[in-house]
Amino acid sequence: MESVTTAARMKEVSAGTRAAGRRLGLVPTMGALHEGHLSLVQKALAECGTVVLSIYVNPLQFGPGEDFERYPRDLGRDAALARGAGVAILFVPGEGEVHIAGHRTRVEVEGMQDALCGRSRPGHFRGVTTVVAKLLAIVRPHAAYFGEKDAQQFRIVRRMARDLHAEATLVACPTVREADGLALSSRNAYLTPEERRAAPVLHRALEEGAGLARSGVRDAGAILERVRRTLASEPLARVDYVEAVDDETLAPVAEVRGRVLLAAAAWFGRARLIDNVTVG
Ligand code: PAF
Q1: Binding pocket residue ranges, ligand 1, CB within 6 Å
Q2: 42, 59, 110, 194: which has the fewest C-beta neighbours closer than 10 Å?
Q3: Quick one: average pLDDT of 47-75?
Q4: pLDDT tens digit string along 216-253?
Q5: Does residue 165 have an active-site annotation?
Q6: Class of the 186-275 domain?
Q7: Ligand 1 pocket mutation pick from 27, 29, 55, 92 by most atoms within 8 angstroms of CB
Q8: Residue 132: enclosing H or E segment and its boundaries?
Q9: DSSP, res 216
Q10: CA 21 distance to own-chain centroid
């Protein structure tokens, strides 16, 4: 595994890989790797052969008072996991390599970035689309891999990639879960043992809502009510939002017809966790 810390070297390596006729897959991460990230690497390896895993805790996507400073960072552990998973190139850009000195450009996907998590995290998705646009420009992958747990993020970056005529295909991979249903997330590390025991209620509540939809209930209000009631039964859960939106545009829906995303976010202590299920 080659470790790369500059944009210039990353571009060279990418050009060399392409010139050799090999396909390059990008798995963008902020580190604190877990099985969810490694499943993205497996998918990228199967489809591309040569995999770049980037680790960059992007300051642009954290709001004031969010967890940028305390976001878990352990490069030694992440590098060992990446090597073991078959990553060929570990891209850990140094200061000023992604957001260069004097940078002023932001990329935003209007509308979609203000829904769901965007309401309580203003500016978050603008930070994500800006950094992903830059990573795509530096790495020039044939495909880039994202987790479905961050459903809104994936739909927004896919929209951005289409709108900007990006070369890369953006691929979403299924959420990896603990045995009790909790979606893997780097932020699960913030949970106390009691909060960890409580946290699977997020997935359970969404599944109950999805179950109603699958049994033929069309009224989104009734489905969301069921999800909210189940979440309210867990005293350690503090709900941020529960919503039913169009699976592509993220516009709220009143009726479950076609593909609908049921998405929720809730606080368990200082961990804000998100999850979703699709129906239809
Ligand atoms: O999902 C993440 O870890 C981040 O939002 C991403 C896509 C690496 C951009 O910083």
Answers
A1: 28-30, 58, 61, 128, 131-132, 150, 153
A2: 110
A3: 97
A4: 999 999 999 999 999 999 999 999 999 999 999 999 99
A5: no
A6: alpha beta
A7: 29
A8: helix 124-139
A9: T
A10: 29
